[in-house]
């Protein structure tokens, strides 16, 4: 009896898990076709590693989860840059560029939060505008290191990953 109950529970869970995986794969496939910058494999890996995205059952659910995920990842990179600033682990002239990145990340977090509220009120166009605004943060951060004769950006890879991470909800809002 117990075994049977477990078996049924397990099948239900497995079934849920499988349909969420299919949703992620189907949505990522469409998203990568809409936006050629977005890599299908990155999209699938990013979302399957995020517990909330992994359990989403609708595309709108995926938009919520991937928007939240992007904001969280931006804040991770912000904390990383803040640590560099705190430890003063940077060469001459780098402080301004690093501080600008921190500001840009904060703005991007704000934009994604507004986007989240817009999705809640089913205003997908407004959500799209705010996610596009957030998408500028990684590039604008990198640009700050290209001015003058500064050292290379210590966050180029992280910014490239952020860009992809933000492209996911951006493409998804275009599919709603
Ligand atoms: C991101 O923005 C939201 C809303 O503006 C805010 O509540 C939250 O504290 C911000 N996150 C961080 C880590 O600053």
From TrEMBL:
The keyword Coiled coil does not apply. SUPFAM superfamilies: Plant invertase/pectin methylesterase inhibitor. Residues 1-20 form the signal peptide. InterPro entries: Invertase/methylesterase_inhib (IPR035513), Pectinesterase_inhib_dom (IPR006501), Pla_a_1-like (IPR034088). Residues 19-172 form the Pectinesterase inhibitor domain. Keywords: Disulfide bond, Signal. NCBIfam families: PME_inhib. PANTHER family: OS02G0537100 PROTEIN, PECTINESTERASE INHIBITOR 12. Belongs to the PMEI family. This is Invertase inhibitor.
């Amino acid at each position: 009896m117990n075994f049977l109950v477990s078996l049924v529970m397990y099948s239900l869970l497995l079934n849920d898990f499988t349909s969420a995986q299919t949703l992620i794969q189907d949505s990522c496939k469409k998203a990568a076709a809409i936006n050629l910058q977005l890599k299908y494999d990155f999209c699938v890996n990013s979302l399957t590693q995020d517990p909330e995205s992994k359990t989403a059952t609708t595309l709108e659910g995926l938009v919520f989860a991937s928007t939240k995920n992007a904001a969280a990842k931006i804040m991770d990179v912000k904390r990383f840059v803040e640590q560099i600033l705190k430890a003063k682990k940077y060469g001459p002239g780098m402080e301004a560029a690093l501080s600008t990145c921190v500001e840009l990340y904060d703005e991007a977090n704000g934009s994604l939060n507004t986007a989240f509220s817009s999705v809640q009120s089913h205003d997908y166009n407004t959500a799209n505008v705010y996610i596009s605004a957030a998408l500028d943060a990684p590039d604008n951060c990198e640009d700050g290191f290209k001015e003058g004769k500064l050292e290379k950006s210590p966050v180029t890879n992280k910014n490239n990953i952020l860009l992809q991470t933000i492209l996911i909800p951006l493409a998804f809002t275009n599919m709603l």
